[in-house]
Structure formats: C-alpha cells, structure tokens
Amino acid sequence: MNSNFKHTMKKTALLIIDAQYDFCDPNGTLYVPGAEKDVERIANLIALEGTRIDAIFLTLDTHKVLDIAHPLFWEDQNGNTVAPFTLISAQSVKAGKWVPRYQPEYVLEYLQTLEKEGEFQHFIWPEHCLIGSKGATIDDTLMRAVLAWTHRTRRDYRTVSKGVNPLTEHFGVFKAQVPVANAPETELDERFLAELNKFDQVLVAGEARSHCVATSIRQIVKYAPELAAKVIALTDCMSDVPNFGHFADPIFEEAAQNGMKFAKANQVFKEN
C-alpha cells in the first residue's frame, strides 16, 4: 500500500475557531490583523483538499451586550462606563476603582478565581460577536467554502457556540474561564472532546491565536492529553491580538511537548 493511499485513510476533522466578521474583517469591532488572510487560506484548504476532510466544526463566539467582558457591564468610581481595553483586577474592584453594575459579590469572587487559577487577567473588550449581529457571522469567504464542501461531500458542517453566558469569559472552545454554577454551557464539554478524539487528526485554525486558539489548545492538553498528539495547528491560519502573542507561545510549546504538530495549510496533507 503506498503512502498516499495510507494517508487518505486518515480520518480528519477541521476545527475552525471563531472565524467571524468582528475578528476577521478590518471593519470588525475586534479585528485581528492578518485574520482576513488566515480565512482565505482556510477556505483554499477546504476547496483544494475538502475530500480529505471528514468533518468541519465552526466555533461561534456569542455574546450579549451586558457581558462581564463588555464595557456596559462596568463603570468607574464616577459612574462612567468603562472604556474598552481596560484591565480590571480584583484588587482594583475592592478599592472601588472599577465597579460592576451587576452582581458585585459574584463578580469579585469571579475575578479572584481568575487570578488564583492563573487565567488571563480580566480584560474589557469592545462589544463583539453580539447575538444576531453581523459581527457574529462567519466570514463570507470561509462560509462559501464550507457550504461548497457540504454540497460536495454531503456532510453538514457543525457549529459550537461559546460565550453565551454573560457572567464568565469563554475563550476556550471546551470550557469557560470560570464555570458558572448551574450553567452547564460553561462546564467542560467532555462530549465534544471525546468526539474530536475519534478522529486520527484534528486540524486547528482560527482567531485569535493569542486567546481563543491558545486557550483551546491548553484545555486539550489539560483535559484530553491523548488528543493533543492528534492536533495539527495550521500556523498560517491564525493570528494574534497585537501585543498578546507572548501569552500563547508557552502554551504552544507545552502542546508540542505533548505531541501537537505544526504545519502550513498548503503543506498539511503533504507532510503527515
């Protein structure tokens, strides 16, 4: 049996993280520089190698306006709405510098838990990926490629929503930063991890490398280490939020030690 035929027997999933308008379009509210080129490369991969892809999963960052990581949830000590890109610590809330407009006791405990567990410090983002808005839609170029793949293969794409619960940040695909009591959508998604683990390889792409992609990879390593060895990160199909790339680097290094591989989109089916 030749190596090419052996490769075609590999069951392959493509996990595309948050390839949405607000991240991928220069006019998006939280545009990630380079993302528009990333989605073009993902779309080209699907168009050229779609017969080798057995499943496509699209994650959807999904938020309400009154989200714990959006400005309107917060005010300063003078009652003014907090500006985007503000870093908020538990200590600054205790001191009264920043005031949550909703559930203050819960929010303080949330911030303390974030910091204790070594998660990203709480950060206020521009309103993005609002439910029902243009910003929440999948990038047009990518969506056309995914639809063409579905019609060609007669396999429907799958969507996975995250961030629906407004009381916790939800970077990673598989679990919110801090799960909320009695909110199963924020708990570890063991079923999805198990589903991905049925594939021989899982190609990972999307936005942003520094945040949602990196956190998803860290969750795989932590909660499903056997899956890490099946992951191939498409390095030219993800970009960093500016000045945050250094957060992702050690996560990817640890994942590599656990067997995660790296490839460019036009090489992935040639090199493995």
Automatic annotation (TrEMBL):
Keywords from the named record: Hydrolase
Cross-referenced PANTHER family: LD05707P (PTHR11080:SF2), PYRAZINAMIDASE/NICOTINAMIDASE (PTHR11080)
GO molecular function, one term: hydrolase activity
Gene3D superfamilies reported for this sequence: Isochorismatase-like
Biological source species: Dyadobacter jiangsuensis
Family per similarity comment: Belongs to the isochorismatase family.
Protein name, as recorded: Nicotinamidase-related amidase
